[in-house]
Amino acid sequence: MNFIEIDGISKKFGNNVVLSDVSFNINRGDVVAIIGSSGTGKSTLLRCLNLLEKPEGGRLTIDGNTFDLTDKTPKGKLKLRQETEMVFQQFNLFKQKTALENVMEGLLVVKKYSRGKAKEIAQKQLDKVGMSAWSSHYPRHLSGGQQQRVAIARALAMQPRLLLMDEPTSALDPELVGEVLKTIREIAKDKNTILLVTHEMNFVRQVATQVIFLENGKIVEQGTPYEIFEKPSSQRLKEFLVQINMLSNIEYSI
Is residue 252 over pLDDT 60? Predict the structure, then answer.
């Protein structure tokens, strides 16, 4: 049995079908990157897996425990969100809380840890992402890259079985992208299981264990980075890669 099984995710907005019976598996400790053009359903897929969007159908199985993604009950949401955590494009930090307090929040509210235990875990995670020196700073005093690293620490502190990352560098200035990619690379080395939506193709080549090319809400092709980037089989993927290479071929130092 695969560690993560995603089965039959379908989602539409009105008459617009955004995801159509999307299914794939993830091994424990894998970094799976979802790539594709804008508007193909990549972010919607992640939001469905965390029930931020309600799909019309689909199941998520984590280490043998199956969650019905059409379950709209608060209890169903809570159970699923105890297994998954999301890192957003726009950081979504609490503005009136320090970096340390942001990381502590879920530990206090969801896991019901004591303040002492929550603080100990939060400080450890901030140190892991290189943000311990800024633990008493508020988001407004942090750069975008620093805020995203705090957001990553917040997600890791909850010890998710599946970490969802929705274009974590898309809101950053170019010079800040590298520091966040370096952080993601480091947490990948720790064998966190990650499902990542990104446009950073060079990063995907280096870090992903599996790549999924999504087009019009369907999986067109999936495989290793080598298979996807060096030996694409579908015409649409070939066209996409040509377009990406024309737009950008920047190598980030990670």
Answer: no
